[in-house]
Design brief:
This protein is mainly alpha-helical. It has 2 domains: about 1-80 and about 400-440, no CATH class; about 180-400. It has 13 helices and 8 strands. The protein has helices spanning about 5-40, 45-80, 80-115, 120-150, 170-175, 175-210, 210-250, 250-260, 295-300, 320-345, 355-365, 365-380, 405-435, and strands at about 155-160, 165, 265, 270-275, 280-290, 305, 385-390, 390-395. The strands form 4 sheets. A two-stranded antiparallel sheet has the order 1-2. The protein has a two-stranded antiparallel ribbon with strand order 3-6. Strands 4-5 form a two-stranded antiparallel ribbon. α10 (about 320-345) packs antiparallel against α12 (about 365-380). The longest helix is centred in the N-terminal third of the chain and has 40 residues, at about 5-40. The N and C termini lie far apart (about 55 Å).
């Protein structure tokens, strides 16, 4: 493989490993803040125990996430130096704000929250965890604004003399509608993932039913989080539909790849059964079409024209197979999450929810992670061959380094990140299955 593909693989490995930690951090922080709010408002010690138990899992996840996140940004200088030279004036400012404002705010108040139990006032302590949740989600916002510029570049001018893009309107970059749609969809998915994580761990303890104290503890968390997860999943579906319309408007080639849509036309049908055959520029299986549905999904009009892949030069088309299947699997998982959260909500008041549902929720714990990864695969692979859509190609962005150097660092990343991933799963599993500290009961 050449240096471009190796660099893409290395960045993908780094991003996907880092993103194991990010969504749980975003989701759990809000849930913990909600639990502690209930403690402060009611004085019920059970909610304090909840905040401490889930907070312990949050801290494990956050700590390991920081380790993987720090190294990620260095790759813009090591592997993607030409990209950094060309758009660093825009991209760099957004990442700098994320690091100097959001990350340090989150880290500082997390330390106060962790070490401040019974040392600061209840309301001050509660404020700390809400600031942690706010800062974490603001951190995600600035990173997604940077990615949103890559998806839909705005607020820049080309300096021909310097041979680079320069920031012309900071606020246009900040209020990039495409980026805000990405942010909403990503954060909603992360919050839903946090909900499914709490439901899954609670379901495991309810199945074990080892002692009454643990059962009561996790029955309460199950009852609290089930409707939260259902609402988030419903809103997530709606935000995905809106983001799909934004893709149709700004990245029609990506939409065509998502649907394996080859021929341009109005009243475009949506096919329930499709098997792409990109080598022959067609679908080997294409059945059960609903006339006009794809046009309506993309543009809210059945008579709207949907561009097919053949309308774009071959060198400007994204790879169809990974984009198509990632999108299809993401949607399928979304439907599964909707069914599980609905079932959990309907059974949340039962003394013991259905054992089949509880088992399904335990096995479901890794699936929201997979769903999020698939979504990012659609966003990033579907943008190809552009690193900045319509402005800079990925092949022009890579650093002028030997492929062997990137291969060595790629191997090192895989080894180190695999060890960190295994450590994270081990620690989360250990303390999640242990349950709340008996001394706090």
């Amino acid at each position: 493989m050449d240096v471009v593909m190796l660099s893409r693989l290395q960045f993908a490995v780094a991003v996907f490993f880092h993103f194991i930690f990010v969504p749980l951090t975003l989701g759990l922080s809000v849930i913990i803040a909600w639990m502690e709010t209930r403690y402060v408002r009611t004085g019920d010690e059970i909610w304090k125990r909840h905040a401490k138990f889930w907070g312990k899992l949050f801290l494990i996840n956050f700590t390991l996430g920081v380790v993987t996140g720090i190294t990620l940004e260095f790759q813009f200088g090591t592997n993607w130096s030409r990209y950094s030279e060309y758009v660093g004036d825009i991209f760099g400012s957004l990442l700098a704000i994320e690091a100097t404002v959001a990350f340090f705010l989150e880290s500082t108040f997390l330390a106060i929250w962790h070490f401040g139990w019974d040392k600061v006032g209840k309301k001050t302590h509660l404020l700390c965890i809400w600031l942690v949740a706010l800062a974490g989600n603001i951190s995600a916002l600035w990173i997604i604004l940077a990615n949103g510029f890559m998806q839909r570049p705005v607020g820049y001018v080309i300096n021909e003399a310097a041979g680079r893009a320069e920031l012309a309107n900071f606020w246009e970059v900040v209020f990039n509608g495409y980026a805000w749609g990405m942010f909403a969809h990503t954060v909603l998915a992360a919050w839903a993932l946090g909900g499914f994580f709490v439901l899954g761990v609670s379901a495991w303890h309810l199945l074990r039913n080892r002692n009454q104290a643990h059962t009561d503890f996790f029955r309460r968390s199950f009852k609290m989080i089930a409707p939260w997860t259902l609402i988030l999943t419903l809103v997530l579906v709606l935000s995905g539909d809106e983001q799909g319309k934004a893709v149709a408007e700004h990245q029609p080639a990506k939409l065509a790849a998502m649907e394996s849509h080859w021929e341009s036309g109005t009243n475009a049908p949506f096919y329930l059964m499709v098997w792409p055959d990109p080598d022959n520029e067609r679908n080997s299986i294409q059945a059960l079409g609903i006339p006009g549905l794809l046009s309506w999904i993309a543009y809210n009009r059945t008579d709207a024209e949907v561009k097919g892949l053949k309308s774009f030069p071959k060198e400007d088309r994204p790879p169809v197979t990974p984009v198509f299947w990632s999108f299809r699997l993401m949607v399928a998982l979304g439907m599964l999450f909707l069914l599980l959260s609905l079932a959990a909500t309907l059974q949340r008041k039962r003394q013991m929810p259905c054992r089949g549902l509880l088992k399904a929720l335990v096995w479901n714990i890794p699936l929201p992670y997979i769903g999020l990864m698939l979504g990012w695969a659609v966003a990033e692979i579907g943008r190809q061959p552009w690193i900045v859509y319509g402005l800079m190609r990925t092949t022009d962005a890579v650093s002028p380094v030997p492929a062997s150097n990137v291969a060595i660092s790629l191997g090192a990343f895989i080894l180190v990140y695999s060890a960190l991933g295994i450590l994270d799963i081990y620690l989360l599993r250990k303390y999640a299955l242990k349950g709340p500290d008996a001394r706090e009961a």
